Amino acid sequence: MGLVFMSIKVTALTRMYDTQKAVDNISFELKKGEIVGFLGPNGAGKSTTMKILTTYLPATSGTASVCGFDVQEKSMEVRKRVGYLPESNPLYFEMYVREYLEFSAGIHQMGKNSKKRIEEMISLTGLGKESHKKIGTLSKGYKQRVGLAQAMLHDPEVLILDEPTSGLDPNQIVEIRDLIKSLGGEKTVLLSTHIMQEVQAMCNRVIIINNGKIVADDSIEQLKQANTRQDMLIVTFEQKIDTALLKELKNLQKFENTSVNTWNLITKDQEALRREVMQWAVKYDLNISSLQVQSESLEDVFRSLTKKS
Questions:
Q1: Residue 291, exposed/middle/buried by CB under 10 A (0-12, 13-18, 19+)?
Q2: Of 88, 98, 163, 195, which one is least surrounded by beta carbons within 10 A?
Q3: For the segment 114-143, what is each residue's pLDDT rounded down to a tens digit?
């Protein structure tokens, strides 16, 4: 087997602010082409980690590298290969959109390719109608698009996006989500967000950080399976049910009657209980008018892993 190239590698990374550990001895790796959600409550260490990876902050201890370059020892090489959209999205409000992108292209020394690339980014981020305006006059959503255009302008190998859909309306969110998703396979993307639907729509994998420590790192499905405490079947019968009969169900942990003939059946093995309920209903000649499956969501998993924050 060939070597797998790691776009981001973090090893025993710690960042102190006086006596507080904002990031506490964390390690993770991102392969080329992955889109990874970086989740955590406010103050968990997400933005600090992203600032270290983009060379804006030094680590107190540990190491981090991007595309094989150490973020402290080879910071200029890292900056060439990273596109960064910070949470605060700092922009020059007195500049016009196109002027700002030209300025950014100059910083990256893009040369002759810059004009074509700027037009591509304006088109890609839907800035066409706004490109003649001063940044300060734009809505928050369009300012966010300018930040995204700037982050992608120099065609970086790695994108680090801190709350990329902040301030966007629902239509803009879908457009930016599709744009980020389309980059998977081609670019490595590490993005933070508080919107779980965003993560499920865009990410292959999730890293959850809490109090500066990584508490989970896995695919969304694996996380949900590993952290599911209970699943539920919501079953509505056509007749009243004797609770003594329900107690015969071996895969049933507990139950509650929510309306006349509707029951919440709670289990640790949803599929086994579903099969058992169907056989049990046949045995007692019970008619089921509806059966719904309800699992823990990513939001439930997030809450259970971070609730002690």
A1: middle
A2: 88
A3: 999 999 999 988 899 999 999 999 988 899
pTM (two decimals): 0.77
Amino acid at 250: K
Residue 250, phi-psi category: left (phi > 0), alpha (psi -120 to 50), beta (remainder)? alpha
Same domain, 208 and 268: no
Looking at this protein, which amino acid is placed at residue 26? I
150 within 8 A of 205, measured Cβ to Cβ: no
Tally of domains within the chain: 2
How confident is the model at residue 227, as a pLDDT? 60
181 and 206 part of one domain: yes
Query: β-strand 61-66 against 69-70: which pairing, if any?
Result: antiparallel
Minimal CA–CA distance to 265: which of 292, 285, 283, 297?
A: 292
Structural domain harbouring 48: 6-218
Alpha-carbon distance of 122 to 98, in angstroms, equals 8
N- to C-terminal Cα separation, the chain: 41
- Let me know whether 39 and 177 are in one domain: yes
How far is 302 from 38, CA to CA, in rounded Å? 11
C-alpha span between 16 and 58 (Å, rounded): 10
Where among 189, 218, 247 does a domain terminate?
218
Q: Pick from 27, 17, 47: which is nearest to 214 by CA?
A: 27
b/e per residue 131-156 (b: at least 16 CB within 10 A):
beeebeebeebbbbbbbbbbbbbbeb
Last residue of one domain, picked from the residues 158, 186, 218 = 218
On the question of pLDDT at 213 being above 50, the answer is yes
Residue 40 and residue 185 share a domain: yes
Amino acid, single-letter form, for residue 288 = I
Question: Which CATH number goes with the domain that contains 182?
Answer: 3.40.50.300
- Residues 147, 230: Cα–Cα separation, whole Å: 42
